[in-house]
Amino acid sequence: MSALSAHSTTPFSGQGIRVGVFDSGVGGLSVLKAIRQAMPLADLIYVADSGFAPYGERSDAFISERSNEISGFLQSQGVHGIVVACNTATAVAVHELRQLWPHLPIIGVEPGIKPAISQSRNKKIGVLATPGTLASQKFKSLVTRHEADAELHLQACPGLARTIESGNLNRQELKTLIAQFCAPLKDAGVDTVVLGCTHYPFVANQLQASLGKDVYLLDTAQAVAKHTAAILQNRVITPSTDVTRGEVTFWTTGDPALLQQVAESWLGWQVVAHQMDSGQD
Ligand code: DGL
After folding, report:
1. pLDDT by residue (tens digit) across 32-45?
2. pTM of the model
3. Last residue of a domain, which of 171, 187, 219?
4. How crowded is residue 222: how many other Cβ atoms within 10 Å of its Cβ?
5. pLDDT above 70 covers what percent of the chain?
6. How many structural domains are present in the chain?
7. Which is catalytic among the residues 82, 128, 197, 225?
8. Is the CB of 58 under 6 A from ligand 1?
9. Catalytic site includes residue 182
10. In degrees rounded to 5, what are phi and psi of residue 151?
11. Which of 199, 219, 239 is the last residue of a domain?
12. Residue of 24, 70, 127 with the most ligand 1 atoms within 8 Å of its CB, for mutation
């Protein structure tokens, strides 16, 4: 039996697989990092749509158009699957992407309300997310499924992803926004806070300091990575035998130097970022 068999007890290393990962900007790097740990032999292609970030305060039509454009690019790179490493794009566009490419696994992310409820002691949960995610039908259905099981405190964070995207995490503006968005959750006495935007793990330390050390911050990156490996392990057709490490390639519609700088400090390895054509005339 092949080591890559779905029935193998060895965790799937990603050998022979190419995965596309995208976000409105640098936020999806938090998911990419977890995918890299889960599948070190997979080739990963990351696209940051920083030229058009943030998505969280844009129209649905805009987010769908950008998501289609980037997924088309990833598809042209021969990926075996796409991870939409953005809660906002998942909420608005994942359904359409799955219809456009029915044979390609498209894995989305969503705020981890269910795991938050499982681990909360007092069943008071805070959710930090973009205005776009909170306003979406997909998120509203998620809330409807769980609202009987816990007190959910939803906090929209306009401006937070944009400020993180700028790359300077010491700005006063960032401190002000974090204090403003954490205050209602502290007042509500939540013991668990869901990071419902992939940009927010970048400021997890600041959020923790503002919310207090006893509040548990829930990030779903590792669960998404595990799910991605499980979905893709049956897609390997001709695994190569001589791979020691998968390649990771970075593209951005914004400034490659900025993506390079943020990615290197977040991922801890040397990065070369390429300029991607925005697809707009
Ligand atoms: N990182 C994204 C998310 O998870 C989007 C942030 C934004 O572009 O507004 O929602």
Report:
1. 999 999 999 999 99
2. 0.93
3. 219
4. 14
5. 93
6. 2
7. 197
8. no
9. no
10. -85, 115
11. 219
12. 24
